[in-house]
């Protein structure tokens, strides 16, 4: 049973307020013994660091306390993996013995001001990476949990200071005297603090092992409780708190859960949804489709995420389902509306494919509820016309690693990016396409870059038969979603040779623009 953490208090404090339970220096390592831990044979293991700025002390007995937390979490993860049919898989830990995790003590080069919550994560990561460069044998996987002693203890039960989040395969949490499993389930401030911060540590670890935020669907709450990757930090150690099925599906292909070695962990996968049908039927959203992938798909996840979405930390309320591939290239989901917590406003449907090498490819589609009914008729995949023979007629600017022709290669991993290194020109930005000959079509298709910073928002598209004189074809707004093709229906068939895409602004109000792919459909 688990939890999540989102409570961060930011107070000022002085060194004189540090709790007397703090003592300097690393804990001594116990002597190694024979290890019987069932996941000790995992070829990849979580790297665990205790990172200490040079003006901060450690908290007493940190290795023992962290070992108890991680070993408890390891077993709980295995319990939920087994419930969902994956066997007793869990993340590997680099152990000294069955009760002690090998926690790497790393003294920072700088004081705590260099490693604060805002902006400190990259600085810690750089020193961890440098440590691995000097000690390559200590790197047991690409996944890293980095614990930093709290700096601000003005409220001893709500400490703060260091980074506390997951970022890629690196995740950060803080240590303090009440980060101790012995306080879980107890009453009072110490018990509440242990719930928030131990659950929070496991929540951030979930991110570091590839899991996304989600909310347990209603029908699963009686048997599974609160999702670790949602509000579990308020319940961990107090009431039932577990992994959702979307988290276990993700961990099934996470490196530290693997019992086999491979050389292509988290490398790029080319994956496309080739057919998609989404409809409202018998009180449920029914999703059917087919896909083509360059690597085997182990699991598929569906999220229905109420607005706001598309930005960090806006998806704690995304209800999720997981399933297996149907046949060799299909998928089928039934999402009953009785499993939703609200039936109003805007939503985003996301479909994630978890590949055998741990990579996940996501596709997003926006829809809305009206009178408690999902309006999803516009969620579809069209067959795009080949871009063979197409070329770039012109552009306002591009980067060497974001060339304009990338929008014609049908590859979401490449993109056009307006200039940002040599200057900061503002919108509008534009790119013009020569389709080689006059072509007839009734719709335009756009795909935003996976990194949505600078994603196109309000757009004008112009047409031309000679490439010099332009007529406005359509003005519209692209949703802030990545992975999926965004369809713009023109209402009637258009025949032309040249098209110019002009940005008016971008999501997030960035001065630059970018776009992964562009196409047309009949």
Automatic annotation (TrEMBL):
SUPFAM superfamilies: Galactose-binding domain-like. Pfam families: F5_F8_type_C. Residues 18-38 are annotated as: Disordered. InterPro entries: FA58C, Galactose-bd-like_sf. It comes from the Bacteria. Coiled coil: none annotated. Residues 371-520 form the F5/8 type C domain. Residues 18-32 have a biased composition (Basic and acidic residues). This is F5/8 type C domain-containing protein. It comes from Sphingobacterium kyonggiense. The lineage of its organism: Bacteria, Pseudomonadati, Bacteroidota, Sphingobacteriia, Sphingobacteriales.
